[in-house]
Amino acid sequence: MPTLLVVIASTRPGRVGLPVGQWFIQFAQQHGTFSVNTADLLKLDLPLMNEPNHPRFRNYTLSHTKEWSRVVDAADAVVFVMPEYNYSMTAPLKNALDYLYVEWQYKPVGLLSYGGISGGLRAAQMLKQVVTTLKMMPIPEGISIPFVREFIKDGVFQPNELMVQSAQMMLDELARWEEALRPLRYAVRQNSTT
Q1: How far, in Å, CA of 105 to CA of 132, rounded?
Q2: If we measure between CA atoms, which residue out of 142, 159, 174, 162 comes closest to residue 19?
Q3: Which of 65, 87, 105, 127 has its Cα between 20 and 30 A from that of 134?
Q4: What Pfam families does the record tag this protein with (predicted)?
């Protein structure tokens, strides 16, 4: 079974990204197409990029980078659960992306964005520019949650029907792209271990 990595990109105290991410993780597990792993950037706590070598060489010197490399390398697809800050992605998310290069290649990406009136869509558009540079494939199907706090009740995210349908479509499409990109990922993994 392919592995889906769900990355919770908010690190702010009182964040709503955690309950949103918890809902999506449970939904993805019930979907049954992927084995689901989670990376919470708050717990990961990567310092601002501090590796001396360019990520494309995979010559990591620090234990936090080696662990992050292992987590991302094991994934076949990725979903970013991401808020919008000032029309863009969070700094911890951009930093986490910049730490690695080869590990991201040829993985389909689903975007679950949230925020105020825009539902995080401006940040999602900014992220697409970054992930395509890393040779990832952002799929068109995604989840956008406007006025996200209205859907949090007693610390639990309660999606509406449109969000549930969007999650279903995104996971279905991620499964298609994961299978299509699998030969390319396999070739990259073979080349990086030889």
Answers
A1: 9
A2: 159
A3: 87
A4: FMN_red (PF03358)
Number of domains in the chain: 1
CA geometry: angle at 115 spanning 165 and 24, to 5°? 40
C-alpha–C-alpha distance, residues 170 and 139, integer Å: 8
HSE (side-chain half, CA atoms, 13 Å) at 99: 28
- The CATH number for 104's domain is 3.40.50.360
Query: Which uninterrupted H or E stretch holds 39?
Result: strand 35-40
Strands 35-40 and 3-8: parallel
In this predicted structure, the answer to whether residue 72 has a pLDDT above a threshold of 90 is yes
Q: How confident is the model over 175-194, as pLDDT tens digits?
A: 999 999 999 999 988 887 65
Q: Are 157 and 147 in contact (CB under 8 A)?
A: no
Supply 6's token pair. 């769900």
Residues in the chain: 194
**Do strands 152-153 and 156-157 pair parallel, antiparallel, or not at all (unpaired)?**
antiparallel
Domain that holds residue 34: 3-193
Phi, then psi, of 97 in degrees rounded to 5: -65, -45
DSSP 134: T
pTM across the whole model: 0.96
